[in-house]
Amino acid sequence: MRGRIYVTAPANESIGWRDPGFIHDGIMVNLQKGKRYYYQVGSDSGGWSTTYSFVSPNEDSSETIAFLFGDMGTATPYSTFVRTQDESISTIKWISRDIEALGDKPTFISHIGDISYARGYSWLWDNFFYQIEPVASKVPYHVCIGNHEYDWPLQPWKPDWSSSIYGKDGGGECGVPYSLRFHMPGNSSEPTGTRAPSTRNLYYSFDVGLIEIGPLSWSSKGHRPMYTTSYESRDAPLRERLLEHLEPLLVKNKVTLALWGHVHRYERFCPLSNFTCGSLGMNEEEWKAFPVHLVIGMAGQDWQPIWQPRPDHLTDPIFPQPLRSLYRGGEFGYVRLVANKDKLTLSYVGNHDGEVHDVVEIMASGQVLNGVITPDGVAGRDKGESTTSWHVMVASVLVLGAFIGYIFGFVSRSRKDAASSNRWTPVKSDDA
Ligand SMILES: [Fe+2]
C-alpha cells in the first residue's frame, strides 16, 4: 500500500466553511482474486477504526454484480441551512441489504454523478462518506462527475451553446473535492481555470469480473441523459449535441446499454437510435443493434421534473408516454446489475419497499427480454414481465459493460430557478 495526503479546496464562501483537513489516499495492490481482506484505517496517535473487510474482484468469476444509480446526495440527522436528500438513507439501506446477502461474492457500486450535493461544504462531503461507509467500506465505490461537482460560470470548458444551461450547481467546487476524495483509475484531467488542481477521474477504464469498464465497449454511462421523456427543456442543447456526436459512436460500436443520471427518476427505453426503436427483424428486415438507454438518477435527490405534457395542452396534467419509453417511474431507488456470460440483467429496486419494479434482460445473443415493441404496439409495458423476446444485434464479444464518465460540467436547474419556473416539483416541502 502506498499513501498520499491531500488538502481539499476551500468552499467559495465563508458561510459554513471549515478546514477540510487531510485526506489519506491508499492504494492496495497485488490482491488475490476473490479473497476476503480485513483492514483498519487510522493511526496510533488518532486511534484505529473497527475492522472492516471486503472481497477482492475475481476476473475468473462466472458472474459479476453491481449496483448503479445517480444523483443520491446525503441526509443530515438535523436541520441545517442546506437542503439535503432524505431519500438517500433508504437507498443505502437496501443496497446494504443486497451486499450482505451476497456473502463472499464480489460486487461494486457505480454512482454516476451528482454525488453528495455538498456544493462547496466540506462537512456535507464528510456526512456523505459517513452515510455510505456501510457499503463503501465493503465494496468498491466507482464515481463519475455530475454538474453538482463541477458547474461554475468561470470553469474553462464553456462552449457558446451552453450559455443558457451553465450555472452554479457545483457551489464553487470546480471538481476539486470530487477529484481528491475519490481515486479512480486513469490519469485524465481538465483544468479548473483557477489555482486549484485539475479536475480528475474524468475518463478511465478497468475490468471487474465479466464487466469491462471503459469507453465505448458494451455499455456506456454519463450524467446528463441523451434521452428522457421528462419536461426538462433547459438541457435540450446538450441532448442535441449528445445525439449528434455521441449517439453515432454508441451505435457504431454496438454499445448495448447506456446509463444516465441527472433526471431524478427511473426511465427505461427501447434500444434506440435517433428516437427510433431498433428493428425486431420480425418482418425479415435487417436487425438493428441499438443501445438500451436507462435513466437512473433516482437514488436520492427529490427534485423531479414532470413528464412531458401534450404539446398543445401544456398545462394539463396528462403526460402521454411515447412508445420508445417502456417503463418510467418516480420511485427512488437503484439498479442492480447481474451479468454472466449469457445474460445481463438489470433490476430497478425501489427504496420504499426494497422490491424490484422493473427488469430488463439483455442476452449475449442480442435478445432484449421485456418491454417489447411489437407491430401492435408495446407489450409488457410497466409490468416487469418477460413476455416475448426482442432481438437486436450486439457486440460479438462477451464482455459486458463499459462506462464512460462524461463530465464537462453541464448545469441542472437550480433550486431557486426551479421554484420560479415551476417546472421541477419537490416531492416534499422544505419543512418536511
Ligand atoms: Fe445532475
Written overview of the protein:
It is an enzyme of class 3 (hydrolase). It catalyses: a phosphate monoester + H2O = an alcohol + phosphate. This protein has helices at 87-102, 122-136, 147-150, 176-181, 236-252, 415-421, and strands at 2-7, 22-27, 36-39, 42-43, 47-48, 52-55, 63-69, 108-112, 141-144, 189-190, 199-200, 206-208, 211-213, 219-222, 257-260, 266-273, 276-277, 292-296, 303-305, 325-329, 333-340, 343-350, 356-363, 367-369, 372-374, 377-379, 389-391, 424-426. A hairpin with a 2-residue loop joins strand 12 and strand 13. It is globular, with a radius of gyration of 21 Å. Helices cover 15% and strands 28% of the residues. Helix 1 runs parallel beside helix 2 (122-136). The protein has a single domain (60-426), classed as Metallo-dependent phosphatases (Purple Acid Phosphatase, chain A, domain 2). Strands 9-8-7-21-22-23-24-27 form an eight-stranded mixed sheet. Strands 14, 15, 16, 17, 18 and 20 form a six-stranded mixed sheet that branches. It is α+β, with helices and mostly antiparallel strands. Fe (ii) ion is lined by residues 71, 113-114, 146-148, 223, 262, 412. Fe (ii) ion (FE2) binds next to helix 3.
Keywords:
Purple Acid Phosphatase, chain A, domain 2; 8-stranded mixed beta sheet; 6-stranded mixed beta sheet; disordered C terminus; 432 residues; single chain; 28 strands; 6 helices; alpha+beta; globular
Offer a quick outline of the entry.
It comes from Abeliophyllum distichum. By secondary structure, this protein is an alpha+beta fold.
